[in-house]
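Ticket #284: bound-state structure for adenosine-5'-diphosphate.
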Amino acid sequence: MTRAERSGPSGIRLELDKVSRVFGEDSDTPFLALTETSLTLEPGEFVSVVGPSGCGKSTLMLIAAGLLGATTGEVRVNGDPLRSALTDVGIAFQDHLLLDFRTARENVLLQADVRGIDRKKLGKRTDELFKQLGLDGVDDKYPNQLSGGMRQRVSLARTLVHSPPMLMLDEPFGALDALTRLQVRHDLEQLWLQAQPTVLFITHSVEEAVGLSDRIIVFSPSPGEIVDEVSVDLERPRPLALGDTPEYAHYADQVFAHFERMGVLHGDVLPGGGGAGGGSGTAV
Ligand SMILES: Nc1ncnc2c1ncn2[C@@H]1O[C@H](COP(=O)(O)OP(=O)(O)O)[C@@H](O)[C@H]1O
Ligand SMILES: [Mg+2]
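RESOLUTION: The complex was predicted; output attached.
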């Protein structure tokens, strides 16, 4: 299935219009964390943001979710200015943020309690997601009884359980081992293909970005600004071993070329002396 063949996305349109962020604006040392940034996500589009640590990726996501104010600019959702936290969204952070005093299942069903959705309905969806994410049998376990990878997957289930039209995922696979990471990436792609929410996916893994995205937004080092957009027109679902294919190299090379030019990566660490090659898991 190519991008053109997909139809009927359920996602929303998200526009960031010249948003920037200065921290400590009134202090002696104001800090520009995000340069004026404009970016539009079309309904059902899967967009990744890649960039070096500290370039403002999380800041951008928090602004897009209405959780952090922008110093300049505006966020619009389906054309309407966003004035408070976006509610029609599933958010996952790098730190899984599960509640220690709730079981895995109850952590997911938090969405029912917070959003006033029928517990039975979300309970059924929780069963499906736990199955899909390899979480059979963890229902009654508390977070401290689960491995890091399992906690992250429970967190992902909580993000997805209410079928939000928008997902904002900030390095959601950060704590996973390499194999689980591949599996969860595949699971996320499947889940996304089913409902096609709009996705803003923050990552420092070029392979993950190529593996999942319709479009990759490449950020400069701090203060972050967009230096390029790479459209990825590959069949879906994409193979787990994508990193070993020439198609992967074609797209990854474009991203790595920017990081090399900006001094984020130096030629001698890049597979093939500048190309991406099979740099599976290569991250910035
Ligand atoms: N609340 C804050 N107060 C001051 N500085 C911040 C705050 N949040 C983030 N920063 C700074 O802004 C820059 C961008 O941070 P962040 O958006 O978290 O980057 P990334 O997610 O790309 O690693 C960093 O230098 C970070 O230290
Ligand atoms: Mg971050």
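RESOLUTION NOTES: Helices lie at 57-64, 104-108, 110-115, 119-132, 148-160, 178-195, 206-212, 246-261.
TICKET STATUS: resolved
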